């Protein structure tokens, strides 16, 4: 977990960020950039690189236990981090949105083996769900569920992780946003969760933008130019490549360079989009970038941040 803490003694709200990546990696595009947005907005911020599945070993509940422990660490050390433990929000992108929403609906199920942490409240005070994976049903992002549960998951596991089925009155307030044209996670995911929140009486906001691809993060020029800061969320991938190179996995040693290259950990930087594609994305960003201001105002009201 990487922290962005103001160098003063002011007690601030906290924000815990969970990047996306289909539970196979933690995307650097959804880490430093949103962290700095919230930091500049007055939050003390934490980015969680939760356990991911790159070698096709199902994760099951491990990421959920990771994020629950992160919430408890932050709350238990609230004086050290200068945060108000009653004003701790989460922000999850794509699979990270599924992870945050999982904690929102299943927080009563998650116990910590360390009694010192288990006694700390794990329910967040608010959640921002950005183009979230939600359902394991008709509109599922299958890649995320394969990484989480394996190729042939138990139906009960699939049902447990189909989060729209588990929303109840104890779910914290949620801010949900997505684009109509998301080709990776169907927009129905956000509608299903918003509908479940409405049915359960959970306070929520739901914003659907008319155009935009999946994974637009903060939708700024920095994001478009892929200026993501240090790729610290990819540390698990880097360590895996080292293990592959050393012959400690079932993969051939030459696969290490391919792994590093795929995630640009070899020093390279790919041109992801053509000039024409960038111009189209800029046009979409004009609308989508508004999610940040909408979320800021929603959080100010939800967390009663009268001074921000």
Automatic annotation (TrEMBL):
Domain of life per record: Bacteria
SUPFAM superfamilies registered for this protein in UniProt: alpha/beta-Hydrolases (SSF53474)
Residue ranges occupied by any BD-FAE-like domain in the UniProt entry: 20-194
Keyword Phosphoprotein: no
Gene3D superfamilies reported in the protein's UniProt record: alpha/beta hydrolase
Keywords of this entry: Hydrolase
GO molecular function, one term: hydrolase activity
Name recorded for this polypeptide: Alpha/beta hydrolase
Native source species: Candidatus Mediterraneibacter pullicola
């Amino acid at each position: 977990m990487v922290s962005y803490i103001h160098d003063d003694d002011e007690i601030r709200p906290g924000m815990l960020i969970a990047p996306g990546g289909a539970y196979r990696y933690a995307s650097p595009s959804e880490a430093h950039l949103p962290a700095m947005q919230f930091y500049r907005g007055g939050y003390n911020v934490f980015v969680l690189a939760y356990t991911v599945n790159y070698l096709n070993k199902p994760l099951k509940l491990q990421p959920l236990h990771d994020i629950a422990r992160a919430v408890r660490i932050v709350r238990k050390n609230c004086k050290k981090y200068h945060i108000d433990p009653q004003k701790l929000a989460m922000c999850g992108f794509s699979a990270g949105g599924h992870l945050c929403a999982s904690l929102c609906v299943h927080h009563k199920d998650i116990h910590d083996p360390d009694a010192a942490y288990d006694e700390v409240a794990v329910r967040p005070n608010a959640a921002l769900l950005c183009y979230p994976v939600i359902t394991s049903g008709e509109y599922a992002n299958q890649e995320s569920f394969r990484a989480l549960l394996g190729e042939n998951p138990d139906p009960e596991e699939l049902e447990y992780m189909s989060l729209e089925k588990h929303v109840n009155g104890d779910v914290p307030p949620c801010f949900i946003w997505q684009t109509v044209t998301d080709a990776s996670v169907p927009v129905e995911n956000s509608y299903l969760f918003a509908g479940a929140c409405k049915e359960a009486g959970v306070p929520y906001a739901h914003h659907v933008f008319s155009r935009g691809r999946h994974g637009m993060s903060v939708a700024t020029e920095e994001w478009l130019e892929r200026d993501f800061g240090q790729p610290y969320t990819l540390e698990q991938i880097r360590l895996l490549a080292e293990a592959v190179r050393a012959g400690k996995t079932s993969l051939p040693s030459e696969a290490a360079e391919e792994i590093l290259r795929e995630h640009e950990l070899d020093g390279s930087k790919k041109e992801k989009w053509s000039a024409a594609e960038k111009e189209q994305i800029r046009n979409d960003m004009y609308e989508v970038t508004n999610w940040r201001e909408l979320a800021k105002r929603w959080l100010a009201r939800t967390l009663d941040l009268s001074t921000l």
